[in-house]
Amino acid sequence: MNKTVTIAIASCNNAPYIERCIDSVIHQSYNNLEILIVDDGSKDDTIDKIEEFTKDSRLRIIIKENGGLSSVRQRALEEAKGDYICFIDADDYLKNDYVELMLSKIMSENSDICICSTLFENEDGSINEKDTQSFAVMDRSPLKVTNDLLSSRNSNLSGLLSLSDSWNKMYRTSFLKEIGVQFNLPKGFNGSDLVFNHKVALFEPQYSFVSAVEYCHVLYKKSAVRRKKKELQQGFQFIISDITNEAYRANCIDKLKGKIVNLHYYLLRYALQDRLNETDGLNLKIKEVCKSRNINTLFIEQNVYLINKVGFMETNSLKAFYMLFHYMPFFLPLFFTIRKKLTE
User: Fold this and answer.
1) Mean pLDDT throughout 32-43?
2) Degrees, nearest 5: CA angle 218-223-229
3) What is the pLDDT of residue 39?
4) E strand or H helix that includes residue 218
5) Type and span of the H or E element at 103
6) Residue 60 pLDDT class (50, 70, 90 cuts)
7) Average pLDDT of 245-267?
8) Which residues contact 154 (CB under 8 A, 6 or more apart)?
9) Opening angle at CA 263, ends 112 and 290, nearest 5
10) Taking CA atoms, which of 70, 142, 181, 240 is between 20 and 30 Å from 329?
């Protein structure tokens, strides 16, 4: 194998962790790498620590004004010179043969994307077994994701293909540039990788799978996904609109409207549950429900295909949420309390 792989590291105020991340990349068993670090306006000594590694000629640093994760990933994609690209976060790290195993699999099966299993590590170094199990990848034949497959009910491709994240994947760079999908979620919202991967899937890529646990994702108490008042609903509405627009561009909107509706209510449920988990007292929870319904009403007025679509809900739990949200909203705090207990 003589292909060049770009490892694109997204960095912003990661001084305590950046050395471990870079070290895990530099010492990969496969060494034909372009190590591209895009720093999103760090205010700590992250840059100083990165510069200690510049003696490695494979490493290149881009420093930009703070614009959020999507702007970092997109800049890396535009700058990448490798035949394949992996997007990783500066507070995570790689197993030694991450690149070698992924590249061997994606090339041997002539795929566009390769996915590996992920180790979820708590901040204290212990293993989060539940999340690690959830992100385990099974060895299987390559999967060509057609629009017909995407539109089929209960296909659960989001889970199978781990569409919520980019860091456990290797992409063929020419494929990404050919289809023209971009990281474009505005700064301040969660879900940069989620919307990107959903849009990529619209263009019928072939996926390969590596069961080995090769990516190490560390869970920090101060991470963006754990901050309060994340305004998830507004961010998720952007995601739904963006996926819809991309589906029109990919000429598959008629087949996928039902899946987009299902995804809208899945994300809406997630956003509302997150907000209610942060809210104390029944009256305040009901106020949050009413606020969510008002935001959703305005969104549906601009996206009429979302109206009265309970038939597109693919699970009984999501159907129950849909009915309660639209017709019996005051029962939603109880619904989420019961749901949380059932999933613990």
Assistant:
1) 97
2) 150
3) 98
4) strand 206-219
5) helix 98-108
6) very high
7) 93
8) 314
9) 150
10) 240
**Residue 333, token pair as written in the block:** 């705090």
How long is the chain?
A: 344
Q: Nearest 5 degrees, angle CA 24-CA 6-CA 103?
A: 80
Say how far apart CA 288 and CA 229 lie, in whole Å.
12
In order of 14, 27, 129, 193, 242, the CA distances from 21 in angstroms are: 10, 10, 22, 19, 32
Confidence band (pLDDT; 50, 70, 90) for 323? very high
Please name the residue that has the structure tokens 């050919």: 178
Instruction: Give the pLDDT confidence of 100-110 residue by residue, as tens digits.
Output: 999 999 999 99
pLDDT of 225 strictly over 60: no
Question: Which residues have C-beta within 8 Å of that of residue 208, sequence separation ≥ 6?
Answer: 105, 106, 109, 111, 113, 114, 115, 142
- Supply the pLDDT for residue 343: 75
- The number of beta carbons lying within 10 Å of the beta carbon of residue 48 is 11
Q: Please give the Cα distance from 59 to 28 (Å, whole number).
A: 13
The whole-angstrom separation of Cα 235 and Cα 243 is 13
CB 51 within 8 A of CB 58: no
From the list 217, 234, 10, the residue with the least C-alpha distance to 127 is 217
Beta-strand relationship, 5-11 and 84-89: parallel
- Cα 128 from chain centroid (whole Å): 19
Output the six-digit token pair for 314: 């693919």
Using pLDDT thresholds of 50, 70 and 90, give the confidence band for residue 309. confident
Element (H, E) at 69: helix 69-79
Distance CA 242, CA 302 (A): 13
Q: Which amino acid is at 336?
A: F
Asked if residue 196 has pLDDT above 90, the reply is yes
Round the average pLDDT of the chain to a whole number and report it: 93
pLDDT at residue number 52: 95
Give residue 256's Cα distance to chain centre.
Answer: 20
d(CA 50, CA 27) in angstroms, rounded, equals 15
Give the residue from 342, 330, 237 showing the smallest Cα distance to 288: 330
